[in-house]
Amino acid sequence: MLAPRYWPSWLAVALMCLFAFVPHSVRHWLAKGLTPLVKPFCKKPIRIARVNLKACFPHMSEADTVRIIDNMIYSFVSVGMGMGILAFRSRKVLEKRIQIQGLEHIEAARAAGKPIVFLVPHLWGIEYAGARLSSWGLPMMGMVKHHRNPVFNWFSCRQRCRFGGTVYHRDAGLRTLVQGLRRGESFFYLPDQDHGAAKSIFADFFATSKATLPVIGRLANCGGAEVLPLTVGIDQRRGQMTVEVFEALDLTETCCKEEEAVLLNQQLERLIACHPEQYMWFLKVLKTRPEGEARWY
Q1: What average pLDDT does this structure show over 48-52?
Q2: Rounded to whole angstroms, how far apart are CA atoms 147 and 207?
Q3: Which of 56, 215, 252, 258 has its CA 20 to 30 A from that of 239?
Q4: Is 86 exposed, middle or buried (0-12, 13-18, 19+ CB in 10 A)?
Q5: Do 48 and 282 contact (CB within 8 A), yes or no?
Q6: Is 184's pLDDT higher than 60?
Q7: 211-269 confidence digits (pLDDT tens)
Q8: Sequence-distant (≥ 6) Cβ neighbours of residue 19 within 8 angstroms
């Protein structure tokens, strides 16, 4: 990884390390200034975000749509500049910057000897939430798709493993997750990913419908885990983050796949509604459409 072709990558890592020690107020105004400069290069993500917002909120005004998209780009720039915090700053800094609400739900699960499957949508602060829970003392595991660039792959794994987290390759499969749960490790499950029509069930999602994979109940039951919804919000000006954990969901073995898909989408709606401007609306979460309906992307 020290070959000359990777020097630009190391320069990028060095910049992230530098920004990790820059006051948030400076990063905030830098991100504000860079947002309009970055926006012209985000035509495809903006188009996808517009499709998603129009489908989910058909009565949303153009002003609100633009505000959410601008906030999404700002969050992308701001969080990107701050990723070095997870890789290079101390546990004390994370504890000061990231607050956890709803710890009683985590403690109740741990007191019962159960690991946790956190139900969480694709929010910009999700990496911070994982690092904060690890630093608090909760054994966390995650599945990643390796970067082609080994420098960025090292950086990504470093920030996830610093405080005791475990990283598995995505190809390891669900069996690895179940085994990790049985060892007492917890993880984030993101149900808003589109896995296609073959394994998914369509359920209401805001003003439209979404193909949802109803597998979290089986995962939790096989691993003897509790399912806790989680969201994370970022205060743009202060740089403070709040991880909020909600009460456990009832996903017993008697819950059929259709009921689970409905419940998952209802929870997604609730979690996204907490911080709608910080959700990754550029993802193709509505790619799979019911039979006979044209694709939107």
Answers
A1: 97
A2: 35
A3: 56
A4: buried
A5: yes
A6: yes
A7: 999 999 888 999 999 999 999 999 988 889 999 999 999 876 657 889 999 999 999 99
A8: 27, 81, 82, 84
Contact 258, 114 (CB under 8 A): no
Question: What integer pLDDT is reported at residue 168 of this predicted model?
Answer: 85
H-type helices in the chain, by residue range?
Answer: 7-20, 24-38, 43-56, 62-82, 84-88, 91-97, 103-111, 126-136, 150-161, 174-182, 216-223, 257-274
Residue 234, classified by CB atoms within 10 Å of its CB into exposed (0-12), middle (13-18) or buried (19+), is buried
Q: Which amino acid is at 27?
A: R
Residue 100 φ/ψ, nearest 5 degrees: -115, 125
E strand or H helix at 169, and its extent? strand 166-169
Token pair of 112, please? 């019962």
Averaged pLDDT of the chain: 92
Nearest Cα neighbor of 218 from 270, 188, 254, 173 is: 254
